[in-house]
Amino acid sequence: MPTPRDSRPSDAARTDGHTAEAPRESDKAPPETLRSVCVFCGASAGARKEHAEAAAELGSVCARRGIKVVYGAGGVGLMGALSDAALAAGGDVIGVIPRALMEREYGRRDLTELHVVDSMHQRKALMHQLSDAFIALPGGYGTLEELFEITAWAQLGLHRKPVVLLDGGGFFDPLARMLDHARDEGFITAEERLLVRHTGTVEDALRSASRKPPADATTSPVLTPDRT
């Protein structure tokens, strides 16, 4: 069982060089081959079994293909289904969790790597640094907040990593319509709307996660993630 890693910025040597800072130039775009994917998903299982099944399938497929899974370190709900399946298939699973949640026993300790950080914001920044792409499964406020913040970073030109919705049961259909509405009302451009890709299967999600977003969908960097 791995020992949780304290990922405070002052302890950089204890996190294999990963700290919750602005992305380096090499962090901004995914490599040609998808090596790791950050998965945003709920700590609840949801009302329909299809959601947990999709989470488990994603974890299993990533493990079989040698793609590391980076996620919020939870052991229940969709987070549990995802990590259980990935670990059972022999995959590498990296969890990132704030210390306050770890102290309340919300994080699992049997992961390949476990990074314990000081805040929710450091959690998101480190998950960004550890990942080549982002896939969102169904979830609540936390999942949606993570999805929108990482998309906003892409809009600002802080990274060019793919952001993908994995939606086998129509959960994200209303969100996709809302994004279309925001485009039609002039709050995001047509190019910026393309930053969030809507897929219905694990295969499509991973395929989409392997493709960079269009260059004209982002602006020049004006912020760093620790300032957003």
UniProtKB/TrEMBL annotation:
<feature type="region of interest" description="Disordered">
    <location>
        <begin position="205"/>
        <end position="228"/>
    </location>
</feature>
<dbReference type="InterPro" id="IPR031100">
    <property type="entry name" value="LOG_fam"/>
</dbReference>
<dbReference type="InterPro" id="IPR005269">
    <property type="entry name" value="LOG"/>
</dbReference>
<keyword id="KW-0203">Cytokinin biosynthesis</keyword>
<feature type="region of interest" description="Disordered">
    <location>
        <begin position="1"/>
        <end position="30"/>
    </location>
</feature>
<dbReference type="GO" id="GO:0009691">
    <property type="term" value="P:cytokinin biosynthetic process"/>
</dbReference>
<keyword id="KW-0378">Hydrolase</keyword>
<comment type="similarity">
    <text>Belongs to the LOG family.</text>
</comment>
<dbReference type="Pfam" id="PF03641">
    <property type="entry name" value="Lysine_decarbox"/>
</dbReference>
<dbReference type="GO" id="GO:0016799">
    <property type="term" value="F:hydrolase activity, hydrolyzing N-glycosyl compounds"/>
</dbReference>
<protein>
    <recommendedName>
        <fullName>Cytokinin riboside 5'-monophosphate phosphoribohydrolase</fullName>
        <ecNumber>3.2.2.n1</ecNumber>
    </recommendedName>
</protein>
<dbReference type="GO" id="GO:0005829">
    <property type="term" value="C:cytosol"/>
</dbReference>
